[in-house]
Amino acid sequence: MKRTCVILLAAALLLTALGACAGGQNTSQPESSAPESSTPVSSAPAESESPKEEPTMTPEPAKAIGYEYDHDTLQYELVWSDEFDYEGKPDPEKWNYDTGGSGWGNNELQTYTAGDNAEVTDGKLIIELRSEPVGENSKRYTSTRMITFGKEEWLYGKFEISAKLPAGLGTWPAFWMMPAHSAYGGWPNSGEIDIMEHVGFDQDVVVQTVHNTAYHAGDGKGKSTPTAGVSEGFHTYAVEWLPDKLIFSIDGEESFVYDPTEYSDAPTKEIWPYDQPFYLLLNLAFGGNWGGAQGTDDSYFPVQYEVEYVRVYQSPEITALTQQAG
Ligand SMILES: [Ca+2]
User: Are 288 and 125 a contacting pair, CB within 8 Å?
Assistant: First the structure.
């Protein structure tokens, strides 16, 4: 949920958003703030101190290149979904919760409950943001953040949500992905994929972003896409995660592509950490460095983030291709 470097926002807002991350921390590091300085993308190999030594270090293999497939003919199979076609609490076989009111690295105002603010009814998931005092930390707002962490994780695939987003100053719903194992280290080194973010002060603009070692926070790569009526009806927000690129879409229309070969002929994990399993997150935040950048207003509470479904598809051809590549 790192703010991306987008064309539509003023520099002041970008500065505010630097270091902001609506959840850029995963469950293993919920309290840390986003780093403000970038990690160097690469450094020159160290010179051997002794000219007699044979070099033993091999360069890191390039990532995200050499995959040959015909994108137009890829077949996808539904491998996981929650259609929310039941009544009651979200399916405990599919969802865990991130809980607490730490601010989530972005000074967010809500405390996340263990599902108290989530309900499945009438074919939909409803996440409700409420104004109510919470326990000892005196936070005045509650909401819920659902995660598949500990339940399911995926490497490559199509990840799609159909959702109706809340409107109102300070609201900040999201649908996004975080690394399940942080193979390349803590945020942002193992990556983050933000499939949909929307902030209330910028109604009907959907933001899709990737974060990694080289590009994160205000320098994350992404795009803001004007999307009419996000709070009036259901729209689909998706990413197609391939071994060599990430293709974002809104209502089936391609909106942004992250292709690491645009930045390097031989991409490394610093710009392509997306070769490890990720999990899904679904949450409604309030306020914070980005969501609250133009203030907050709770006069219209409670407010709801409605989800018709979450679906995950994978392509056997891509799976075979990547297994072949080792
Ligand atoms: Ca449904």
Answer: no
